[in-house]
Design brief:
- 2 copies of one chain form a homodimer.
- The first copy, chain A, is of the alpha/beta class.
- The first copy, chain A, has 5 helices and 11 strands.
- Chain A has helices at 2-11, 32-45, 62-72, 131-142, 161-167; strands at 13-15, 19-21, 29-30, 53-57, 76-79, 91-98, 103-110, 119-127, 146-156, 172-181, 187-189.
- Chain A has a 6-stranded mixed beta sheet with strand order 5-4-8-9-10-11, sandwiched between helices. In chain A, strands 1-2 form a two-stranded antiparallel ribbon.
- The radius of gyration of chain A is 16 Å and the shape is globular.
- Chain A starts with a helix and ends with a strand.
- The model of chain A has no long low-confidence stretch (mean pLDDT 93).
- Strand 3 of chain A pairs antiparallel with strand 5 (76-79) of chain B, so a sheet runs across the interface.
Chain lengths: 193, 193
């Protein structure tokens, strides 16, 4: 998606350790008009699917997921990273390693919000090693529902998550795939056909 | 706001300890169309203010905040509850007690995302004792920026946060104010003039 690639080039910052910081428009400060444009693009890319629900994981996936759900006119549900008093004990649960935070999270979703006939689009801001996405697929599978695909804002194409999950048959659409980035700030995208 | 009150009555659940569970449409599963309607209502209520940015705190404020920012055509920024490797060291920081989670959080926002000339609307899903809202006001004040008001989905009118902060001069608009609720499920709203 041209608009997203341009924003990454103009506002993204590369840090050592393959960190791409896009917190001025994607995951700390949020460009609300960009969220809407990305949501419309996910609608176009998954137009052949009958999606009943959009799913993401807190916190930085929520903005793009709720906008996608709004455009698709379906509900959104987000998986929670820690047990809270307000979360029903009746949950599906899985474990996800966060490399950003250097710890393992219990990721949970209330059972009542995934039905076995749901066709779920998973939406997230980043795809790198794919463990968060795998965790969300696991929660959907526990419910006996279907994952119709995953809509990702930025995929780090030089990490293996995207290709590993595509090889398993998951339909992933990433709006920008970073093929290469260097500490001097150069960012190269994978061109789409 | 009639629509929100009706959803609270039809889908909200009251639990002992004054817990109002609205996680089927507001803060776990999210009714994306309701978010848009609430955003439009905030725009109407704050139409006399020149708002430059919408601010909230992760995680459950993000959905309504990004939709409000979209309708108002401004950026949204959300305060983060814990230090992450990807968050700049150059942050404004404050402490907020979470009664839901029974712990104190460091709440942070990158300095670069609040400018001294910003006029900020704070948006959140709940207002009860007001400590989260006060924390967000504190972050804005540290930046020398202005809080033009706070747009809240549900205010627990029987807790003191709303009135305490109104007495300090904060312009708060709550779309539903719960005046009374009982374990048998009765919920009474404060009627607006």
């Amino acid at each position: 998606m041209r608009l997203l690639e341009e924003m990454i080039l103009s506002k993204g910052k590369v840090y050592p350790g393959n960190i791409l910081k896009v917190d001025s428009f994607l995951n700390h400060q949020i460009d609300s008009q960009l969220m809407f444009a990305m949501a419309q693009e996910f609608q176009r890319l998954f137009r052949d699917e009958k999606i009943t629900k959009v799913m993401t994981i807190e916190a930085s996936g929520i903005a793009i997921a709720v906008m996608t759900a709004y455009v698709m006119q379906v509900p959104m549900v987000f998986a929670k990273k820690s047990q809270t008093k307000n979360l029903s004990a009746d949950v599906y649960s899985t474990q996800v390693m966060s490399f950003t935070h250097g710890r393992v999270y219990d990721v949970k979703i209330a059972k009542e919000f995934i039905n076995s006939d749901d066709k779920i689009l998973i939406v997230d801001d980043f795809l790198a090693n794919g463990v968060a996405l795998e965790g969300l697929c696991d929660l959907v599978n526990q419910a006996g529902a279907s994952v119709v695909g995953a809509g990702i804002a930025i995929e780090k194409g030089f990490q293996d998550g995207g290709n590993r999950l595509r090889a398993k048959g998951l339909h992933i659409e990433s709006l920008a795939i970073v093929q290469e980035m260097n500490d001097n700030g150069t960012i190269k995208f994978l061109s789409k056909q």
